[in-house]
Design goal:
This protein is an alpha/beta fold. It is built from eleven helices and nine strands. The longest helix is centred in the N-terminal third of the chain and has 19 residues. Bound molecules: N-carbamoyl-L-aspartate (NCD).
């Protein structure tokens, strides 16, 4: 897919690979402005008369909600489509046809789909920009942009830090996008923590190797936790397992509780894309290092506002 190269206008956002450091800079600066607006209880009218279709073939509440909120803060309209099983897609319509139809009704399509590669397929035929809001076990670039924005707020240079990603690294699309994005920061070390069965896919490891970054794969969360400046926990992606028994074997592989948090650095930040199942005990929520329930979530609005504005206005 076409690289951003400083110009977001009318671009599809399919993969985090489209972004370089300058693009991240432009986007996060814009997000800072959006944050100011929202904090003052305001928005702007830059996307008045523009319409966004939120076309969701998989369950979502936060990604869906934050895109809708972002568009409305910019005075745009929305066509919210959740539960595609109730629409004509269940009559057998192809993704390509659906995307063409909603390209006539709106100026941008935000797509979530259970198949890896679906966003790219949609972008190839779409009349309007397509934003990938998660393509099965593939990527979730806008989540990663907000994750990066959160990391940057705590570690402005994003230099010489250790980012630990734990949980379902095989199916976790937020991990795939984040691991790729961090390759732009050569002094950032990535440590991947997972059970043997949920290790990072080979193609992502090849990507990291090619980029020449330092990374490590381990099974021991305690070991990685002590080193982490950023700890990014994820849930085991139940919906991706063919055999539910396999899921039950690994679902509680890691449970981060207060006791474990005592091993972590004082300045560490604890992130999670949510929804959280068992992997972080609720007791950890009040730990000042936990950013997932407020800061990280709110950043999703600012980043998505910034992205919509840069693409559409
Ligand atoms: C993530 C996703 O959909 O991939 N959720 C989200 O968008 N915030 C993570 C997950 O579902 O585990």
């Amino acid at each position: 897919m076409e690289k951003i190269q400083g110009n977001f206008k009318n671009k599809h956002i399919v993969s985090i690979e489209q972004f370089d450091r300058r693009d991240l800079e432009i986007l996060t600066n814009e997000a800072d402005r959006m944050k100011e607006l929202v904090k003052r209880g305001k928005g702007n009218s830059h996307l008045k008369h523009k319409i966004m279709t939120a076309l969701f073939y998989e369950p979502s509440s936060r990604t869906f909600g934050s895109f809708v909120s972002a568009m409305q803060r910019l005075s745009g309209g929305i066509i919210p489509i959740q539960g595609v099983q109730f629409s004509s897609v269940s009559k057998g319509e192809t993704l390509e046809d659906t995307v063409r139809v909603f390209g006539c009704f709106s100026d941008i399509i935000v797509l979530r789909h259970p198949e890896k590669g679906a966003a790219e397929k949609a972008a190839r035929v779409s009349y309007v920009p397509v934003i990938n809001a998660g393509d099965g076990p593939g990527e979730h670039p806008t989540q990663t942009l907000l994750d990066f924005y959160t990391i940057k707020n705590h570690f402005p240079e994003t230099e010489n830090i250790i980012v630990v990603m734990a949980g379902d690294l095989l199916y976790g699309r937020t991990i795939h996008s984040l691991a790729k994005l961090l390759t732009h920061f050569k002094t950032v070390k990535q440590i991947f923590v997972s059970p043997e069965k949920l290790r990072l896919p080979q193609y992502i490891k090849e990507y990291l190797k090619k980029a020449g970054v330092v990374f490590e794969e381990v099974e021991d969360l305690n070991y990685a936790l002590k080193k982490a400046d950023v700890l990014y926990m994820t849930r085991v992606q139940k919906e991706r397992f063919d055999d539910i028994n396999e899921y039950h074997l690994v679902k509680d592989a890691y449970i981060l509780d207060d006791k474990l948090m005592r091993l972590a650095k004082q300045k560490m930040i604890l992130m999670h894309p949510l929804p959280r199942i068992n992997e972080i005990s609720p007791g950890v929520d009040k730990d000042s290092r936990a950013v997932y329930l407020k800061e990280q979530m709110c950043n999703g609005i600012y980043i998505r506002m910034a992205l919509l504005e840069l693409i559409l206005s």
